[in-house]
Write a sequence for this structure.
């Protein structure tokens, strides 16, 4: 089955079985390996991508269901010159990355939050990432990285 969608602002057409997940299509067919495969049950958030701006678990979302929609992966957050987005840079600056496995999913979830609310409070940040599991950071640095973006935009 041929599916047309937009991935990181680029129109693509992929041949994929109707049951193939968006995660498999992104990683195996389009070689966008920033999106991580972990639980494959929609529980951990490591595979989060933005679908028309909203976070979804790509491991349980069929590629066919994304036909005609816009998908943004962690690779799509970078500038055209490869520069990090403000959120990505803040993660680096605040040591919000340990092993890095959950980082792409967290970045995508938080990017959606910041698009909807450029100045979220701590509770909103914590609620937004409730579906993203991180075994290394304890979340403190992640929340601080987002709060720092808020402070920088106010300066």
């Amino acid at each position: 089955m041929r599916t047309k969608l937009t991935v990181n602002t680029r129109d693509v057409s992929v041949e994929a079985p109707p049951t193939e997940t968006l995660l498999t299509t992104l990683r195996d067919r389009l070689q966008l390996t920033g999106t991580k495969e972990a639980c494959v049950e929609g529980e951990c958030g490591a595979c989060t991508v933005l679908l028309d701006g909203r976070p979804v678990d790509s491991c349980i979302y069929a590629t066919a269901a994304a036909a005609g929609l816009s998908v943004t992966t962690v690779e799509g957050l970078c500038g055209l010159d490869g520069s990090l987005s403000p959120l990505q840079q803040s993660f680096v600056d605040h040591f919000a990355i340990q092993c890095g496995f959950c980082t792409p999913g967290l970045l995508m979830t938080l990017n959606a939050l910041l698009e909807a609310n450029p100045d979220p409070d701590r509770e909103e940040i914590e609620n937004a990432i409730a579906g993203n599991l991180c075994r290394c950071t304890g979340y403190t640095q992640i929340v601080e990285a987002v709060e720092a973006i808020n402070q920088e935009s106010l300066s």
